[in-house]
Amino acid sequence: MDERLVTLFDEIRGYLKEICDKLGAIENKIDRAITVTERKERIAVFVDSQNLYYSVKAIYGGKVDYNKLLYKIRGDRILVKAISYVVHPPEGDVRPFVASLEKIGYEVRLKEIRIRGDGSAKANWDMGIALDILGILDKVDTVVLVSGDGDFVPLLSYIRDKGKTVEVYSFEASTAYDLRETADRYVPLDESVILDYR
After folding, report:
1. Contact 44, 182 (CB under 8 A)
2. 184 φ, ψ (degrees, to nearest 5)
3. What are the pLDDT digits (tens) for 82-117?
4. Which of 5, 136, 165, 186 has the fewest CB atoms inside 10 Å of its own CB, making it the most exposed?
């Protein structure tokens, strides 16, 4: 065989090997992309129970069915954590409510109402909610806030800047406009999450 043909075959063999290597690398990238796409979205849910309570009471005169709420939010996604922030009034027993939330799968954060010197009451979970969200941010794809409180707008902007998706669920009539606008996805709640609503 002519020496030039041998050289040509060697060159062709080299090109074919290079093409096969590149095709293999492309196939690996496609496989990784498919794996990421098929991976279910990981979510964490943060429920401002006091905000929700007053919204439902004003609009429907009822109470929230927290089981239906969580089911509606989760869908087929992976629930990493669900936390409900509860304020304990000076009178009344919240233990049955807390127990029912825990049974459904919520972690419960409980705060006593503080009475100030002037007689006014203070019980706000905004800072606690923010700290819990920031603490889990690297473990989830989506943060779900259940509240209509416009004070959360800067927090939601920060979360989005970190590349996470932000969803807000609330009753539209009692939700700050800028909160709805800041979320990647806003879902208005309705009577479908009200306890025994007919």
Report:
1. no
2. -70, -35
3. 999 998 877 778 899 999 999 999 999 998 877 666
4. 5
Q: Where are the domains of the chain?
A: 1-39, 42-193
Task: Summarize pLDDT for 154-166 with one digit per residue, the tens.
Answer: 999 999 999 999 9
pTM: 0.77
